[in-house]
Specification:
two-stranded antiparallel sheet; 2 strands; mainly alpha; 71 residues; single chain
Length: 71
């Protein structure tokens, strides 16, 4: 197998430090009136990643059923 002798680059995993509750509350308060405040609130409350948030469409939202589909 020719791929046996290929040296793979090391896997680097970044350490992710979630926001403390007080910091999350401060962020939500500071961005409440910002044009992106709803997007930031959705990120804080759901933990969705940037790509997931930016990929949302109205078809993914079911307000009556209180469901949000991440595709």
């Amino acid at each position: 197998n020719p791929a046996e002798h290929v040296a793979l680059p090391p896997i680097v995993r970044d350490h992710i430090e979630p926001l403390a509750v007080a910091d999350a509350r401060a962020l939500l308060a500071a961005t409440r009136d910002d044009r992106h405040g709803s997007l930031i609130a959705l990120a804080v409350y759901t933990g969705m990643r940037q790509g997931e948030l930016l990929g949302l469409r109205w078809a993914d939202v079911d307000l009556a059923g209180a469901v949000l589909h991440v595709r």
